[in-house]
From TrEMBL:
One of the Pfam families matching this protein, by short name: Zn_clus
PROSITE patterns recorded: ZN2_CY6_FUNGAL_1, ZN2_CY6_FUNGAL_2
GO MF entries: DNA-binding transcription factor activity, RNA polymerase II-specific; zinc ion binding
InterPro entries per record: Zn2-C6_fun-type_DNA-bd_sf, Zn2-C6_fungal_TF, Zn2Cys6_DnaBD
PANTHER family named among the record's database cross-references: FINGER DOMAIN PROTEIN, PUTATIVE (AFU_ORTHOLOGUE AFUA_1G01650)-RELATED (PTHR47657:SF11), STEROL REGULATORY ELEMENT-BINDING PROTEIN ECM22 (PTHR47657)
Species name: Hypocrea virens (strain Gv29-8 / FGSC 10586)
Protein name: Zn(2)-C6 fungal-type domain-containing protein
Location of the Zn(2)-C6 fungal-type domain: 21-51
Keywords: Nucleus
Keyword Nucleus (UniProt): yes
Length: 399
């Protein structure tokens, strides 16, 4: 069967996000019903609807202080903080941590959530936690990551972030952007890099949809597809500013991770590559990145596929995400079946060891699988790798 373009198959108009919706709905990536002054989505989510500019993003409706994830107290408006509670402050703004946030700080923030299996990260995280009390944008980002991690643990509740997670995420983004517009000194560099990494994790772990049917690639194409890649790129653009490998950086211990991210892939051929993968990508001894668009991505997938799950690190998984540019990126955007297969294999493998990859893989893997079954059913060499195929068991092997 010839591949069919999904856009021509679908009769009804796809669900699009509302153009005139409130900002909360845009942030939460849900369709706003536009009922004014308060939309129904915000009411049911428990936040103050914000068509108006003077209402902050994702403010909880409740007046019950126990429900406040975080209380914002601007200097001069309220009394100075009582000494018994926990605060984060940059000297001009004070943020009080309520009991739930304090619990999250105790439970998660001293640990490495982004790279849980890396013992070197224990020290990094302790020092980052100390910095979070003096850099509210980092505290908000860290709390949002902790809430995302909770989302990973409670598998049943789907992928939609909670009101608290959205709130901390949006607060962090707003404060972070404000901070980046000011003069950056050496002492600011570590909190900036820590926040950039956390924001990239948040955008990766929050897919646009919670069901495979509404998720990429099954949903109709939109310019915002693969938006998480853009976040990754903007994180890397902060590299120059934060310089995480400078001698006094607390991230210096991660030099191996950074080296893995940039680890050179073979320049030519299929040496070390899994043979079935080379075959499906039409790679051979003379292949290079210039004559085969799958070259880098296939090598990157092959490298992690060979490793036991416990040995798959963030650095190694990023070799693949960094291969998504140029012709391979265009193929992925056009939903090319081989590019989708490589993405699928990467999700399956990386999602087993890295929780924030799992959160996106949870919806996008079944979505890729259904897409390939629907529109490329006759592509037997691709289907061999997918559930029910001859190579499926080999791919799902769990060393
Ligand atoms: Zn709305
Ligand atoms: Zn609203």
């Amino acid at each position: 069967m010839a591949p069919t373009c999904p856009e021509t198959v679908r009769g009804s108009r796809p669900m699009t996000r509302s153009r005139f919706g409130c900002r909360n709905c845009k942030l939460r990536k849900v369709k706003c019903d536009e009922s004014k002054p308060r939309c129904k989505r915000c009411a049911s989510f428990g936040v103050i609807c914000n068509f108006r500019l003077d209402v902050l993003d994702l403010q909880p409706v409740t007046r019950d202080p126990a429900m406040y994830a975080f209380q914002v107290v601007r200097q001069g408006v309220l009394q100075p903080p009582p000494s018994s509670s926990v605060w984060t402050t940059d000297g001009s703004n004070f943020y009080q941590l309520n009991s739930k946030c304090q619990e999250f700080v105790t439970r998660y923030l001293g640990r490495s959530l982004i790279t849980p299996d890396d013992p070197r990260m224990v020290q990094v995280n302790r020092r980052l936690l100390a910095l979070a009390f003096a850099n509210p944008f980092l505290m908000h980002a860290s709390l949002a990551v902790a809430f995302a991690y909770d989302r990973h643990l409670s598998r049943s509740s789907g992928c939609r972030p909670s009101v608290e997670e959205c709130y901390h995420w949006s607060q962090s983004t707003a404060l972070f952007n404000r901070r980046l517009n000011k003069l950056i000194e050496t002492k600011d560099k570590d909190p900036i890099w820590g926040t950039a990494a956390a924001l990239a994790v948040l955008s990766f772990s929050t897919p646009d949809a919670i069901t495979p049917e509404k998720s990429w690639p099954l949903k109709p194409s939109e310019p915002t597809d693969l938006e998480w890649l853009r976040m990754n790129t903007s994180k890397m653009s902060l590299w120059r500013i934060a310089d995480p490998l400078r001698p006094d950086s607390l991230f210096r211990v991660m030099a191996t991770t950074f080296a893995q991210m940039n680890s050179p892939l073979p320049e030519k051929g299929i040496c070390d590559m899994l043979i079935p993968l080379a075959q499906v990508c039409s790679l051979e001894d003379s292949s290079t990145t210039e004559n085969n668009p799958y070259f880098k991505a296939a090598h990157a997938v092959s490298q992690i596929q060979r490793l036991p799950n416990r040995q798959v690190t963030v650095g190694q998984t990023e070799v693949f995400t960094r291969s998504i540019h140029g012709p391979f990126k265009s193929l992925l955007q056009r939903k090319d079946p081989i590019a989708l297969l490589l993405m699928y294999l990467w999700y399956r493998k990386a999602g087993r060891s890295i929780w924030w990859i799992e959160l996106r893989a949870r919806v996008e893997c079944p979505s890729i699988f259904s897409y390939l079954r629907l529109y490329h059913r006759g592509y037997t060499t691709v289907h061999a790798f997918l559930p029910g195929g001859a190579l499926a068991a080999w791919i799902e092997e769990n060393p």
